[in-house]
Structure formats: C-alpha cells, structure tokens
Amino acid sequence: MNKVKTIATIGPATSSKEMIKSLIINGVDAFRINMSHSTPDFCRDIVNKINELNKELNTYIATMIDIKGPLVRIGNISNGQAFLKANDKIRIFMNPVLGDCTKFSTNYPGLVNDVPVNAILKIDDGVVQLQVIDKGMDYLLCKVLKEGIISNNKSINVPNVKLNRPFISEEDKRTIKFAHELNVDFLALSFVSCQEDVLQVNDLLIDLGNDHIQILSKIENESAVEDIDNIIKVSDGIMIARGDLGVEVSLERIPGIQKKIINKCHNAGIISIVATELLATMTNNNHPTRAEISDIANAVLDGVDAVMLCGETTVGKYPIETLKILERTIKAAEVDLNYNYMMEQAIKTEKRDTTGSIAFSVTGCANKLQCKAIFTPTMSGHTAKKISRFRPLCPVIAVSPNIETVKSLALNFGVYPILINDLKSLDAIIEKSKKIAQEFLLLKPNDTIIITGGYPFKKVKHTNFMKIEEI
To answer: How confident is the model at residue 428, as a pLDDT?
Structure first.
C-alpha cells in the first residue's frame, strides 16, 4: 500500500468498465473526469461504473469532476484539426465559424477587447503560438510564430493579460449542480486566480446543502501563485496543474513553485496534488524516461499527498503499464522520505489543541515503536487527516460507518479508509482493529498497532485517547 495516492483521468482509452476495474486493481485511489472534454452523459456513465465496481470489489475509490473554468478555447475545426504554418496569417473570430488553416473561432467573444496588439497567444499549452498584429470589430488578426496542429476545443492562453471573464460561467454552475446530484467526492476548479474565486464555488455548494464535496483549487496562472496563501485558506486541496501553469509562467520556475506549494499545503494541513506530464512519454511508448521517474520521486520526497495521470490514461496506449510504473516509483521513493523531518515541520504550525497534540504523539510513538499501523475510528475523518499531516511511517487505517467520510479520505497521504457497520464500544473497535490489521497487514505475534480517536464515539468532537496494542 503506497502512502502517496494516485489519480487517473478517465478518457476514451479507459472508459470501459473493464479498464476502470483494471486501474482500480492496480492502485488507483480516485478517478478524475475533465468536463472540458466530457459530456454530462459520459460523466454520469463513468460515475455509475465506478460506484458499481466499488460494490463489486469492496473498494472506496473516490470520484472527481474538473469544471471547465474561465479558460478560452478554440471552436470547431473542419475535419477536427488544421495545420498552421509559420509566418502565415490567421483570423480568430468572436462568433462561431468552422475553422481551418486561415481562421477559427473562440468561446470567449470578449477576447477581441481584452487582448492588445502584439500580445502572444499560446494554443494547446504552447504547442502553437500566435502574435496579434491587428484587430477588427469581431476578430483578431494574428501571425503564426510557432507552427503546429490546432484541433477542436484546445486551450488558448494569453500570458500576462488579465481577461475580463467571470470565474464561474452558467455552464460551470450547471456542472457544479450536476456534481452535487452525482454525489462526487472532489471538485477541481480550473484557472483559479484568487481566494474570491474559490469562495464563489463554496457559496454554491452551501446553497445546495452539500458539505461533502471537497474543493481542489488548480494553480495554473501567475495570479494564483501570488495569492496562494489565501487560496490555501479556503481550499481543501491544491492541484499544481503544470500544463497550463507552464504556459502562463516560464518553465524554469515550475519546479520551485511546485516545491513551495507542496510545503505550504503540508504546513496548512491540506491536500497537495502534482499533475500533468508525470509519464507523458508513455502516452505513446511503453517505457518512461529517467527524467520522468526522477520528477515523480522528487514530488514524493517533497511530501506530496497525491499525483495525477492525465493524457497517459485518457488517450494513452499503455494506461495500465503507466500506472504500474507510477506505483513502483512511488513505492521506491517513499523509502527515502524523511518522515521525522516532515513530522517536525508539521508540529511547528500545528494549532494548540487536543487533537493535534495527540496526533503528533501518536505519530512519534508509531515511528519510535515501529508500529505496523495506526487505527483511527472516525465519524468526520478529522483525526485521520491530522495524523496524515504528521506523515507517520506506518499506514493510517481510518474506520468509519459513514461512506462519505471514507471516500473523503481517498487522497490524504498514508490514509487507508475502511467502511465498518458502526462505532460501538471501545473494546469492540480494538478487536475490530486487530482483525483488520491481521487480515490486511499480515501481522506477526508481538507486532504492535496504535488505536486513537475520540471517545465516546459520536459524542466527542476531538481526539482524546491513544492505546497501544500488541498482537
């Protein structure tokens, strides 16, 4: 069982129930559906398949919907794609037209007003680059600086230019309501630029009466990097989406930004996720590069909670092989993680409360005694998240009678949530913990585990006990 969690994005290559099952068996902890490239019908079908497989396999794999956000995109292209040649001229129309090598349209009519002459437009994460050389009433005239293929729905980034689009469109509002109806576990917000963007979505979830869906803010532009401390305060997790971020800021800054954000998330006690091009080579090849393996390992060594596959599992030729290599790389890197350092860093910013203090003590004892597992009975998941922040060497087994709580813990470092019938007496929980430990961890006589939580269950809202048990 790896401590760093894995997320796989579902696409044409992995949308069958058989492929989803294979991904679960090989270690996926959560599935992401990107609504920029999916229909509601596709999304509903995938969520239903995951729910069915959870019942069949007795698993608790989480679901994530990624909303489109205020990203500017290309309209439809004749035959699906067109080649733009260097130095050619091309018009970008604000009203829908069928695109080709001389023209295409955009989903944001205000682009003509927001973008100045000489601005650089980067299409599909910079695969194609244009420069605005003139403007008409309803179009931009551009010169092709970097040639390449454009296709339907590809992104258009305008670095260093503030676009006057609302953060949440009416379509995004419908998607959030749809996510609520499907009872997904995580909502990824594309192109967050400030704290207020996140609060808008939080308000929508409050209006829906939904206190289960966790908000993951995607960091994809300079504004978000600058306001990261405030964004962290109102988010359940941060996703470092290196694709669009690498278009908006210089590539050489990304490693430093990634490390700083992972550290800030760890200090704040929220989830950190690294995404995009983890194993991009394996989209078309059955083996990775050494640089890709080092990239994944470094994210693990920095203390990340989860990593996410994107194109590798949506359109890649080798999704299962890619996942297996990712899991092996994580497992190897976890051996070299400085657990005691991570624990000491976390306690520096921990609030002075009972739960945090006991979570720190539990982690310290587990590491020193070389315990095989920490068991935490929980109604809300709060104790398990606290312990996760201190990065114990052993797994944290969170047992709960609440399925939503169980799935909400899918992305927390080192936490393995398990659904049980009920939280009854402490003695019953201890016996249940021993049974689970022997079943899943292959324990030997004299091995030790720690049980911690709040007692009496369902009445106490903070952690107030820890008990060391010998098998």
So the answer is: 75
pLDDT along the chain (471 residues), means of 10: 96 98 98 94 98 96 95 92 96 96 95 95 93 96 96 90 90 97 97 96 97 97 95 98 91 97 96 97 96 98 98 97 98 96 92 86 94 90 94 94 95 94 73 77 84 74 80 77
Task: Please list, in sequence order, all residues whose beta carbon lies within 8 angstroms of the beta carbon of residue 129, skipping any fewer than 6 positions away.
Answer: 120, 121, 122, 123, 144, 145, 146
CA nearest to 281, candidates 263, 294, 266, 268: 294
What is the C-alpha to C-alpha distance for residues 409 and 379, in angstroms, rounded to an integer? Answer: 12
Rounded Cα distance, 228 and 192, in Å: 10
Give CA–CA dist 180/134, Å, rounded: 44
Q: Is 249 left (phi over 0), alpha (psi -120 to 50) or beta?
A: beta
Q: Greatest CA separation found in the chain?
A: 79
- Cβ 13 vs Cβ 319: under 8 Å: yes
**What is d(CA 329, CA 277) in angstroms, rounded to the nearest whole number?**
15
Asked if residues 68 and 35 have their Cβ atoms less than 8 Å apart, the reply is: yes
- Of 408, 49, 372, residue with least CA distance to 210: 408
- H or E element: which one contains 180? helix 170-182
Fill in the DSSP letter of residue 406.
H
Spatial separation of the C-alpha atoms in residues 176 and 413, rounded to whole Å: 26
In sequence order, the 6+-apart residues with CB closer than 8 A to the CB of 170 are none
CA–CA dist 49, 45 (Å, integer) = 6
Three-state DSSP state, 215:
strand
The answer, as to whether pTM is greater than 0.70, is: yes
Q: Do the bridges between strand 5-9 and strand 30-34 make them parallel or antiparallel, or are there none, so unpaired?
A: parallel
Per DSSP, the residues of 28-78 read --EEEEETTS--HHHHHHHHHHHHHHHHHHT---EEEEE---S-EEB--BG
- Residue 463 tokens, joined: 């952690």
- Per-residue b or e along 271-302, where b marks 16 or more CB atoms closer than 10 Å to that residue's CB: bbbbbbbbbbbbbeeeebeeebbebbbebbeb
